[in-house]
Amino acid sequence: RAGTKSVPVRLRGPGPLAAAGLKLPHAARAAAAGMLFYSFFKSLVGKDVVVELKNDLSICGTLHSVDQYLNIKLTDISVTDPEKYPHMLSVKNCFIRGSVVRYVQLPADEVDTQLLQDAARKEALQQKQ
Amino acid sequence: MCVFRDGEACVSRGGGSEPEWGPRGASLAVGVSAPLTMFRYQSLEDCPLDEDEDAFQTLGEEDEDIDQFNDDTFGAGAIDDDWQEAHERLAELEDKPATARELEDGAVSDEMELLGHHEENLAERLSKLVIENELEDPAIMQAVQTQPPMQQPGGLNSSIWDGSAVLRRIRGPLLTQEMPSVSVLEYAMPQRPPQGQEDERDLSERALPRRSSSPVIGSPPVRAVPIGTPPKQATVPNFNQQILCPKPVHIRAPMQQRYPSPYGERMSPNQLCSVPAGRMSPSQFARVSGLVGSPLTSMNPKLLQGRVGQMMSPASGFRAFFGAPPPPAPPPSQQQHPPCPGSHLQNLRPHPQMFRPDTTHLHPQHRRLLHQRQQQNRNQHRSLNGSAGDRAGHRSSHQEQLRKDPYANLMLQREKDWVSKIQMMQLQSTDPYLDDFYYQNYFQKLEKVSAAEEMHGDGPKKERTKLITPQVAKLEHAYKPVQFEGSLGKLTVSSVNNPRKMIDAVVTSRSEDDETKEKQVRDKRRQTLVTIEKTYSLLLDVEDYERRYLLSLEGERPALMEERKQKICDMYDNLRGKAPGQERPSDDHFVQIMCIRKGKRMVARILPFLSTEQAADILMATARNLPFLIKKDAQDEVLLCLLRPFSLVLYHLPSGTVTSLLQQLANLPQSATAPAPANLHLAAVLQNKFGLSLLYLVLSRGEELQNSSAATELMQDNQWTELMSMATRELLRIPEAALAKPVSTPSNLLSLFSRYVDQQKLNVLETKLQLVQGIR
């Protein structure tokens, strides 16, 4: 309702990579558009975070590294509820696949919310183009 | 020739040691001809004997075929290996791995020539698949260790890539802590000296099933044993399983099949999946081309393991782009690396083989922070630690773990590099500042803050290294959809580059009449929000101009300046609402913006860019509507963010403006009539933190002006005096409890008030407003 002209909406599916299979670098580079949270988590490397997974497991640890898929590596981890997950007692470091993360709890003073908002706006502009 | 499906082992039928050609005695071992022959025989068997001559003729013909088949299988056409002998030899593998090795060598050398020209073609084809020009990116190339033309250390020739080498279980030193998947920010692994490889060498030869056709790109490999099965200690039985088939051809099979198998047999699932289907691993064609080379004799697992043990940070390519001199590149020197951030392995206290992450790709500020943390942790753990004896204990147990790690060296260094390369390629960006906006800016801000703090101290000591992220030139790919000549119409192929329109959504706006008042209000708010967002984009652009200015050429700069000015004007227009005529009679638009939290923040950010008049205008509008804004801000409490830019603006304002500003605050009409007993406007202002602080600022500024050379103007201004008296009256009137707590109390207020009130009232004011420094 807000707009006055008709805007055709395009939904981008993932698209078969086969067509671009041999041109992988180009297609892959296009994927670099959604790098906001990658950039954000990079700035948090070395800080203590609590990662809550979709299976309700909460892991507290130091953020060791993150990649473009937001896979997370934590070091020196401890499970917040050890009684429930005794198998985690001996685990010191872990790798968490990005897709299973539900929440990441961060220290508030490590985040610049204004900058984050700016980054989100820029990304939205970029995506529109 | 028997076609294996999914690794079914072909087992000979028991009993008969000699393959019989009897109708039903034909063993499967005979080969693909066997089913046909069997079929024929069976059909003949079933054929009634009183068939006409045709049947016998067919029989005769088939006899000839049989002979031909015979020849193929057993005669001149066949390969001469005696399966029984081979079988016996292989059976000995259980006891003597060494023997098996020789056997393998022998077998391989036989087959080399046969496979020779096959592999060359394949290698050529495969190498074309790899896009070499992408690999010229220095960032990527530095992320990997191997050079595209294979240069192995120690004078190894390409035969090291022989399939048997791969199939052999290579035990290399690998930290158990190393995560199998490669993360872009993977920290560097120190190189470990190979530890006792000789005893580890097993012939875990697993014969992979043969494909009937050339390798199909993208199709998954066929595996004899499921992926991810860790190699057993005695892997030879596995070998035997495959080879038990007495077919003579099968002995050759493992060698021949090696080239179709794209992967080493011991890739763990995540590693396997990480290889995109569309490409084949470089190690595959490396292996392939390796098969062309001379036989196995020069294969030296020790050297191979030496290389395999390394794991270089894929992101270390960024090193080259640093202002600071890059640390020594080659992996062997990683052992002397600077201390790593974050003690990762608490059980591995300081010792040369500690897991040292590579942080050179991080912003220098970030690195510093991490180092500090790591130092802290280190000290903590040192205090908790026992004697050095404990550490030694740790070390040996750790090495124990390493030696027994069944998942070590699943990937060759080359394969790891290849995966890293792909990941790095995906991270290439045409505009790192934009793509990596948050990270870059965050640490820039931190640096500014720390620099500001340092300035108070003894000046900047630390080097001002800048993080320079490599940038790739943007290539314009004009996508041309697939077309065939002579075809009618075009193919509709949807791909990543050419996504198909899935939904056609048409947005129509509703007409004005239908909307009710409520909806109008809602719409208005939405419109305001849209305006705010548009203005925000302009603001971000304007804030970016400084950086662009530095990057641009001389000729472009005036144009940039123009653009910037234009954008600033646009922003201002957006803020105040498009001017209907010359005047801007209503503040409505502005007030609407100011009612929304992000609107207020945006105004605070825009103010520094505006000209003095424009800024003053904004200030006026704010002061005019302050009570309303205060009321609206009760929830957000964001008005305070405006104080700072307001004070900056005030500093530049002439006295006349200040007066009128105060007027606005006090909400007096131009010509003051007898003042009301209570000025509600001002009262509201005083009760709010922001309002009071703003008032103080204005008063303070006025005082400054009075003290300065242009003071006489102000002194003579009746309005100012009047306003001052009104202000002081109000301040005296208001109960102390209702008075807000200002952000800061300017020091010159006391002197200001002393001009306008007598001593008694001054004392009252003093205590009330806590104007004297000592009172808190």
From TrEMBL, chain A:
GO terms for molecular function: RNA binding. GO terms for biological process: mRNA splicing, via spliceosome. The keyword Nucleus applies. Keywords: mRNA processing, mRNA splicing, Nucleus, Ribonucleoprotein, RNA-binding, Spliceosome. The keyword Nucleus applies. It is found in: Nucleus. Residues 36-110 form the Sm domain. Belongs to the snRNP Sm proteins family. Component of the precatalytic spliceosome (spliceosome B complex). Component of the U4/U6-U5 tri-snRNP complex, a building block of the precatalytic spliceosome (spliceosome B complex). The U4/U6-U5 tri-snRNP complex is composed of the U4, U6 and U5 snRNAs and at least PRPF3, PRPF4, PRPF6, PRPF8, PRPF31, SNRNP200, TXNL4A, SNRNP40, SNRPB, SNRPD1, SNRPD2, SNRPD3, SNRPE, SNRPF, SNRPG, DDX23, CD2BP2, PPIH, SNU13, EFTUD2, SART1 and USP39, plus LSM2, LSM3, LSM4, LSM5, LSM6, LSM7 and LSM8. This is U6 snRNA-associated Sm-like protein LSm2. It comes from Mauremys mutica (yellowpond turtle).
